[in-house]
Design brief:
The N and C termini lie far apart (200 Å). This protein is α/β, with parallel strands linked by helices. The longest helix is centred in the middle third of the chain and has 39 residues. The chain contains ten helices and twelve strands. 18% of the residues are buried. The protein has a nine-stranded mixed sheet with strand order 6-5-4-7-8-9-10-11-12, covered by helices on one side. A three-stranded mixed sheet has the order 1-3-2. Among the domains are: 68 residues, membrane protein fhac (Ubiquitin-like (UB roll), Roll), CATH 3.10.20.310; 99 residues, no CATH class.
Length: 349
């Protein structure tokens, strides 16, 4: 007796509590079989192509597929140390309190206002300066009154021309120091002071040189000089006064006599009042020996200028103490032992 297949179980109604086989797993099919389960077909269709009544079934199929995926097959997001290190972190200080922010804005606004005030102030000052310069260079503030004092030999016009004031320039352009320096280049002027008086006046005070004597010029006439040897003027004829003789040729007015004239200038400048009115000529030779012409055939020999004051004092004593009959030569080269004698033959006194 052979056992045949047993009776197949009778399929009863589905148990409501039993799990749906199609919901827990996907039915395996033969790869070569053209048949496709209804569940897979429905899963492949887009959600928009499914009827609204079949949407819950599709969701249940997708849920079953998610449950069948092993936990170890799910890849965790990559969190390498480098990625963690480069992720920006929110610092507590990056959050600015509203009051602090308002304070910063107020400080920046105040700085902007301060810069604006400086810029506006600078522009105002620049405009004021430009306007002031324009006003100062107008004819309203030009030179109108110029007073020159002390220019007896030089003349006021020569002084104003040297100072550059003949054209009545704006008073702001008058430089007192520069004008005085130009005036002092004039032959007779020893010192000059220029003063401005706003709005339109200038006063020039001149101190002139004192003439000491005259030096003969080779071409005729004489050159008037002062004690320092400055040539003050050229005259066509000799004038009353002291005559200086020295181996020099005087230059044009404004120049200075050469060195060989210095001994004669030194003696002429040192003459005391008792001798100044009597001496007619002071002569110095090439060896710097000085002699005096006292007039009336009387002369004096001083020699060098060393011990000059003692020699002049001795000469004044001889003239005051004894009557000197011309022609005579008073030798005071040795001040303590002055001598009076006759001039040597052929000499001129």
């Amino acid at each position: 007796m052979t056992d045949g297949p047993g009776p197949s179980p009778v399929a009863g109604p589905p148990d409501p509590g039993a799990p749906d086989p199609g919901a827990g797993e996907v039915a395996e099919t033969d790869p070569g079989s053209p048949e496709v389960s209804e569940t897979e077909t429905r899963a492949e269709l887009p959600a928009s192509d499914l009827p609204e009544t079949e949407a819950p079934a599709q969701d249940s199929a997708l849920s079953a597929l998610r449950h069948e995926v092993a936990p170890d097959e799910v890849e965790a997001p990559s969190t390498s140390p480098r990625d963690v290190a480069t992720e920006p972190e929110v610092q507590p200080s990056s959050v600015v309190h509203p009051r602090v922010w308002q304070r910063r804005v107020a400080v920046l606004r105040e700085q902007g206002h301060r810069r604006l005030r400086w810029v506006v102030g600078g522009v105002v000052v620049l405009v004021v300066l430009c306007v002031a310069l324009l006003v100062l260079h107008t004819p309203l503030l030009a030179l109108r009154n110029a007073t020159v004092r002390g220019a007896q030999h030089t003349g006021s016009e020569a002084v104003l021309q040297a100072a550059g004031l003949l054209d009545h320039p704006p008073l702001i352009d008058v430089d007192p120091k520069s004008a005085a320096a130009h005036i002092e280049k004039l032959p007779w002027v020893a010192h000059a002071v220029v003063a401005r008086h706003w709005p339109d006046s200038v006063t020039i005070t001149v101190t002139e040189r004192l003439p000491l004597g005259s030096v003969a010029r080779p071409g005729g006439g004489v050159a008037v000089v002062d004690a320092s040897g400055h040539v003050l003027a050229w005259l066509s004829s000799a004038t009353p006064g002291l005559v200086l003789v020295a181996p020099v040729t005087p230059g044009r007015p404004g120049t200075v006599l050469a060195g060989p004239a210095r001994p004669a200038l030194a003696v002429a400048s040192a003459l005391p009042p008792a001798l100044a009115g009597r001496v007619l000529k002071v002569a110095a030779d090439a060896r710097a020996r000085v002699s005096l012409d006292l007039g009336g055939g009387v002369s004096a020999v001083l020699g060098s200028t060393s011990g000059l004051q003692a020699k002049l004092t001795a000469l004044a004593s001889v003239l005051a103490g004894a009557h000197v009959s011309p022609p005579a030569v008073i030798d005071v080269t040795v001040p303590d032992e002055p001598t009076v004698g006759r001039p040597p033959p052929g000499s001129q006194t």
